[in-house]
Amino acid sequence: MATDHRIEEKESELIRQVKAGDHQAFETLFTRYVSRVYGQAMGLMRNPEEAEEVVQEVFLTVYTKVGTFRGKAAFSTWLYRLTANAAITRLRKRKRRSEVPLDDYLPRFQEDGHHLIRPVADWSDELQKRIADKELRREIQAALDELPPVDKAVVVLSDMEGLPNREIAKILGLTVPAVKARLHRARLFLRGKLALHFGHSPT
User: Fold this and answer.
1) Options 3.30.1060.10, 3.40.50.2000, 3.40.50.720, 1.10.10.10; which CATH number does 102-198 get?
2) 31-40: pLDDT as tens digits
3) CA angle at residue 87 from 85 to 88, to 5 degrees?
4) Entry pTM
5) I need a surface site. Which of 71, 137, 155, 201 has the fewest CB within 10 A?
6) Could you say which of 1.10.1740.10, 3.40.50.1820, 1.10.287.950, 3.40.50.300 is the CATH number of the domain covering 2-93?
C-alpha cells in the first residue's frame, strides 16, 4: 500500500510539472502511457494508422488541456476517457456498411419463455482467449465492427482490457447499469453472429 501511495505521489508531481509547462515531464508521461493508449486505440480502431492518429490526438489534448485535470479520478481513467472519446468519434465518422440490426442475432423466445431456437453456448468473458485462432479472430473483429461504437468500446474495455464496469462507466460517461445492459446485449449479439463458428446450429 505504501508503494502504491508513493507511485501516486510521483505521478501527481509529474502531472503538476506538466501543468507548469515542463516539457521533460510531458515526455516522461508520454513514455509511461503511450503503449497503453495505443493498445486501447488499436482495440477500437483495428487499424494501425488510425490508432496512431488517435494517440497523437490524445496526447495533444493532454498537453493542451492537462490544466483541466482535477485529480478527482485517476489520471489513467482520464486518459482512457480521452482515448475512447477520440476513437468513438472516428468510428462514427467512418463510412459504415449498412448496419446489421442487433435484434436479428439476439435470442428469441416463445410466449412460454422457451427459446424459439436452440440457445448458443455460454460466452467466455475472456475474449482474448477466443481470438488465438486467426480465422476466428477475423470473425470476431468483423462482428465487433458491426456493433455501435459505444457498445464496441464497452466490449473492448471489459472483455479485452479487463476493466471493471465502474471504471468503464467513468471512462464512457455512462451509468454502471447502462454499461451492464450494453455489455449484455453486445455479448448476445456476438454469440448469435459467431454461433456457427463455435459449432452450434442456429436451428
Assistant:
1) 1.10.10.10
2) 999 999 999 9
3) 65
4) 0.72
5) 201
6) 1.10.1740.10
At 129 the pLDDT is: 58
Q: How far is CA 5 from the centre of its chain?
A: 27
For 129-165, write each residue's pLDDT tens digit: 555 566 677 888 888 888 999 999 999 999 888 899 9
Q: Which three cell numbers stand for residue 90?
A: 472516428
- Rg over alpha carbons for the chain, rounded to the nearest Å, is 20
Least Cα distance to 156 among 138, 141, 175 occurs for: 141
Gap between the Cα atoms of 83 and 54, Å rounded: 7
**First-last CA distance in the chain:** 54
Residue 2 has pLDDT above 90, yes or no: no
